[in-house]
Amino acid sequence: MRRWLPALALLSVVSLFLGTYVGSVSLSPSDVTAGIAYGIKSTLSAFFPGIFPGERPKAFIIVWELRFPRVLLAYLVGLSLASAGVASQALFRNPLADPYIIGVSAGAGIGAALGAIYAPQHMGGLALTSALLSVFIVYSVSRVDGKVPVDTLLLAGIAYGFLASAVTSYLVITQGPRGHLTWMWLMGTFNGKGWEDVVEMFIIALLGVGFLVWKWRELNLILLGEESIALGLDLHLYRKLFIGAIALLTAFAVSTAGIIGFVGLVSPHVMRLLLGPNHRELTPASALFGGVLLVFADLLARTVAKPTELPVGIITALMGAPFFLYLLMKHKRGELYS
C-alpha cells in the first residue's frame, strides 16, 4: 500500500487537472492553476478576512464555476460507486457483484426519477429508500441455503434491473416534454452540476467510503460467511451496516449523476490484481481508482463526439461490458475467486 497510495494520489491529481484543462474552450495550464488558486483563496477569504485572493483570472468562470466542480463531482461519484462495488463483492461473497449489475442502481433510479418529477428536494432520500428496497429484494431472491450463488445473483439482479428500468422509463415518458431531459440525466451526466452538488456528494462519500475503509477487518471476515461468527463478528449487524453503506453511496450517486454502470466492477478487480484481496489496501485503492476512472470516462464523453456530449453511462458501459464478459469467462473456467 505504501507504494500504491502515492501513485494513486498522483494519478488522481493528474486526472482532475486534465479534466479541468480539456474542453471546448482552449485553456493554458496556467489558466487552470490560476483559476483554481483564486477560487480556493476566495472561498477561504469568506472565513479568514486576512486572505486576499488578488486579481480575478480571465478564465476563472470557466475553470471554477463550470469545469472544476464537474470534474470533482465525477471523481466523488466514481469514488463512491467503486467503494460500493468492493463492499457488494464482500457482502454477497460474489466476485461479479456490483450495484449496477445486481439492479441496485436501477432501483435507486426509480426513487431518483420520482424525486425529480414530484419532489426534487427529497430526491436523495427517495433514491436511498428505493436502493435499500432493491438490495433487500435481490438478496432475498438470490439467497440459497445462506449463500448467494453467482448464477442466481446475476439472474435476480438482471431481472430486477429490467423491471426497475421499465418503471423508470414509464415515469419519464409520462412526463411529456420534460421527459427528454430526465432521460438524458438518468443515462449518466455531470452537465450543469455545481458546487452544491459537490458538497452534498462529498459528505455522502466521506460517511460511506470512510465507514468502509474503517471497517476493513469486518469486510475481510464477512467473506467467511457464517464461519465469521466464531471469530467474534456480529454477522447480522454488519450485513445490515454494509447494505446501508452500499445503498447510501449508490443512491446519492444515482440521484446526482444518473445511472452509471460497471465502475464498481472494474475498479475493485483491477486493484485486486495489483494489491491482493486484503480490504485494508483494496478498499481505499479501489475508491481512488474508481474516481480516476470516472473522471476520464467523463472527459471522453465530453470530447469524443464534439460538439455533442455523450452520456457518461455510455462510455462506462463500453469499457465495462467487455470486462464483465471477460470475468464471466474466467469464472466459467474456475479462475475467479468466489
Automatic annotation (TrEMBL):
**GO cellular component terms attached to this protein's record:** plasma membrane
* Family label: Belongs to the binding-protein-dependent transport system permease family. FecCD subfamily.
Under the heading InterPro entries, the entry gives:
ABC_BtuC-like, ABC_transptr_permease_BtuC
- This protein's major location comes to membrane
Keywords of the record: Cell membrane, Membrane, Transmembrane, Transmembrane helix, Transport
GO molecular function terms noted in the UniProt entry: transmembrane transporter activity
Protein name, entry field: Cobalamin import system permease protein BtuC
One Pfam match, given by its short name, reads FecCD
* Organism expressing this protein natively: Thermococcus camini
Membrane topology field: Multi-pass membrane protein
Entry's localization field: Cell membrane
List the transmembrane segments.
Answer: 72-92, 98-118, 125-141, 153-173, 194-214, 241-266, 287-304, 310-329
Give the highest taxon in the source lineage: Archaea
